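Tutorial, part two.
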Amino acid sequence: MRTRAPFQSQRGFTLTELLVVIAIIAILISLLLPAVQQAREAARRTQCKNNLKQIGFALHNYHDVYTTFPMGANSQIYGPLVAVLPYLDQANLQDLYDFDVYYTHANNRDAINTMVPAYLCPTMVLKRAVPEEVCDEPGAPSSYGMSMGTHNGAATASDGMFSGYDGFSAPRPVRIRDVTDGTTNTIMVGEFNFQLEDYLWSAFTCPPLAGESRWGAHRWAPGYPGVGLGSTSGDFNVNLNANRETWRSDHVGGAQFLLGDGSCRFVSENINAETLDNLAARADGNVVGEF
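Running the prediction step on this input gives:
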């Protein structure tokens, strides 16, 4: 006669073993996540650098055509990033812009409220809607602004016509020949972010949101300091309202800059303030050194 094999029970995980496995998986995930986040940020930083290079090519193409860089201030208050749109494959967008009227005119709202991918760093976090409709805010956001220099009020040309603006963006045309410190040693475009928690809406700019955090006001169309133009007038990469004209980014440890020769550099937030000023001024004659 055939005998039946004795019943063998299937042994499962004990509660202790299950908890150990879960703990191991959690440790592995905790080790893996920072690496994934770093890889993603590296990709975003590369895209940001590519954006700046595109802007650099556009600015130099503009200079080739007009023998000057776009002005940072003009009677209609439009910014340099409006002027270079055709050189960023955005000619159709610029065709919507009416240069004969103020930038906030109704004729220009459709144009300036359009998001331009090349003007947005993928790392930058928008803490609010831009433009803010309830405030009738004019203009889509930007992560970048053209450099006014150190904004220290010192004249940088023999006739003093650039007084107060010693960078690439000035109330009068700046040409490559005016960058006597060398284009490789001068900041042309820098980064902004929307992390200014103490920058509040005022009753004048937006009565419905007066007293609430505005976070930032950086937009690509206006030619205003702290909006479409930046400088080294405050503490670099410090998120305070007092520094809203100063360069800041959401990258860890610093910000990226486009130099006058079209190259891009990531600059540590620990850079000496005097060195950063020397980089920002186009004709101060100071030696920049390592940065």
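The radius of gyration is 25 Å. In part three we will examine how such features are distributed along the chain.
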